[in-house]
Amino acid sequence: MEKYSSIINHYESCLQKYGDTHKGIDWPNAEDMLIRYKVMLDIKKFDSIDEKKSSILDFGCGTAKLLEFMNENNYAEFQYSGLDISQKFIDVCVSKFPKTEFYCLDVLKKQLLIEQVDYIIMNGVFTEKRDLAFEEMYAYFTQMLETIFPFCKRGIAFNAMSKAVDWEREDLFHLPLDLLASFLSKKLSRDFIIRNDYGLYEYTTYVYH
């Protein structure tokens, strides 16, 4: 069993306990969850190319609450699809949005057989490490990004917990900015933006091709 299975098991237990709510995807409150969605979708606003219609893949889509947010806030410029490693989450997504494309697979084990999209959103995929050591979570983080980045045409957005906090939680992934910048510059792209301007104890990174 892969070490990151503990992260998957944790989120599935949240879904079982709290259902299709913000707590069911382990966000402490709904207000901060909505802030994260807006910040993630701002990846297009900061891009150098502004096309009218763009495709996005919600990677680690959970119960597709990002799509709910998009529908409620008129993000009509995006064509949405979702992917999650957990069939339990995908079942909820399909029941809510039967006409939307959803994928269920572990991209580190199985080849990602989808067409390129303009943007990939990875909201909450790297915020919790559960019982993984930092080095184990960092290896998972870098392997995942190197695997996924080629499948976006324009860019990718993800968040991680900040090191600029009063105290760090052992189960969260507090990623140093210098370590992140070094990895991105060497392995993905030198064209990236780090946002720490939205009032949460985390930051969001946009990486562009």
Q: What report would you give on this structure?
A:
- By secondary structure, the protein is an alpha/beta fold.
- The protein has a single domain, classed as Rossmann fold (3-Layer(aba) Sandwich).
- The protein contains 6 helices and 7 strands, in the order H-H-E-H-E-H-E-E-H-E-H-E-E.
- It has helices at residues 5-18, 30-41, 65-72, 87-96, 134-148, 177-188; strands spanning 54-59, 78-84, 102-104, 117-122, 152-161, 192-195, 202-208.
- It starts with a helix and ends with a strand.
- The model has no long low-confidence stretch (mean pLDDT 96).
CATH architecture: 3-Layer(aba) Sandwich
Low-confidence stretches: none
Number of strands: 7
Range of strand content: 15-25%
Helical content (DSSP H or I, runs of 4+): 25-40%
The average pLDDT value, as a whole number, equals 96
**Main beta sheet, described?**
7 strands, mixed
Q: Tell me the Rg in angstroms.
A: 16 Å
Strand order of the largest sheet: 3-2-1-4-5-7-6
* Secondary-structure element series: HHEHEHEEHEHEE
Instruction: Report the oligomer.
Output: single chain
Rounded to the nearest angstrom, the distance between the terminal CA atoms is 33 Å
| Number of helical segments with 4 or more residues | 6
CATH fold name = Rossmann fold
Shape, principal axes of CA atoms: globular
Q: Any idea of the CATH class? A: Alpha Beta
Assigned CATH superfamily? Vaccinia Virus protein VP39
